[in-house]
Amino acid sequence: MVQAIIAGRKTQTRRIMKSQPADFEGQIFEPYFGSLQTNFIQQVPTRINPDGEQFYEVCEVFKSPYGGPGDVLWVREKWKPRYVKGGLDGFKSQYPTAQPWFYAANGVSEIGYGGWKPSIHMPKDTCRIYLQNSDVRVQRLQEISSEDAIGEGIESMTVNEDGELVTKYRDYTGTDGWFHDPVESFKSLWFSINGADSWKENP
Predict the structure, then answer these.
(1) How open is the CA angle 166-168-171, to the nearest 5 degrees?
(2) What is the spatial distance between Cα 14 and Cα 137, in angstroms, rounded to a whole number?
(3) CA geometry: angle at 71 spanning 70 and 73, to 5°?
(4) Over 80: is that where the pLDDT of 86 sits?
(5) In this model, does residue 6 exceed pLDDT 70?
(6) Cα–Cα distance between 67 and 135 in angstroms, integer?
(7) pLDDT for 39 beyond 50
(8) Which run of H or E residues covers position 197?
(9) Judging by beta carbons within 10 Å of its beta carbon (0-12, 13-18, 19+), is residue 128 exposed, middle or buried?
(10) In a 3-state reduction of DSSP, which class is residue 29?
(11) CB count, 10 Å around CB of 118?
(12) Is residue 42 a contact partner of residue 58, using CB atoms and an 8 Å limit?
């Protein structure tokens, strides 16, 4: 997914809400973008006027851990240092200090000092990618559209099928297959990260 961000394919990301809201028919989630915090206000329908106007009441308020429009996120990724400070001078001359890190998403070989460090342990001064939020919303997982699935960064290729150019989307379940439907491709990506049960639960 870091490669998809660098390539410009990935413009969206989905994260499961840690506190799952109760499910009410006709509910809506209205964002409230405060000066220091972004909240989503869960509202449920209560009554309809004779003229058809729907009224709602607040049920619960949910905090957004990813901020709101205009907030900046920094991307963690798998990395390792190019050298050790104070040692390996020959190595330092081969790889200058301007960027003393290797990033696994670059597809580099296992050159470097030590093994790859997981993204969760990446310090902020190692970050090279910053993203600015344009929108945050609450949505059921299975409500994703084809356009949004493509925005999640899934890989695609255009092939000739019976004289017609057709776009296909990668199957991430390890079968080396391709889907005609981008939502099915995203679904397979979700499986590979979160497991099939998470899709069925439709968080």
Answers:
(1) 165
(2) 10
(3) 130
(4) no
(5) yes
(6) 9
(7) yes
(8) helix 196-201
(9) middle
(10) strand
(11) 12
(12) yes
Alpha-carbon distances, residue 135 vs 6, 132, 171, 181, 182 (angstroms): 20, 9, 28, 25, 22
| Token pair in block for residue 124 | 């902020």
DSSP category for residue 46: E
- All residues at 6 or more sequence positions from 47 whose CB lies less than 8 Å from its CB, including other chains: 55
Report the greatest alpha carbon distance in the chain: 82
Burial class (CB in 10 A: 0-12, 13-18, 19+), 185: buried
Segment holding 137, helix H or strand E = none
Q: Which two tokens stand for residue 141?
A: 């997982």
The whole-model pTM stands at 0.81
**Is the pLDDT at 31 greater than 70, yes or no?**
yes
Q: What is the pLDDT of residues 124-183, one digit of tens each?
A: 988 999 999 999 999 999 999 999 999 999 999 999 988 899 999 999 998 889 999 999
**Separation of alpha carbons 137 and 180, rounded Å:** 27
pLDDT on residue 95: 46
Q: What are phi and psi of 13, to 5 degrees?
A: -150, 145
d(CA 11, CA 4): 9
* Structure tokens, 90: 């020959």
Kindly give, in sequence order, each residue whose CB lies less than 8 Å from that of residue 157, ignoring residues fewer than 6 positions away.
167, 168, 178
**pLDDT at position 109 over 90:** no
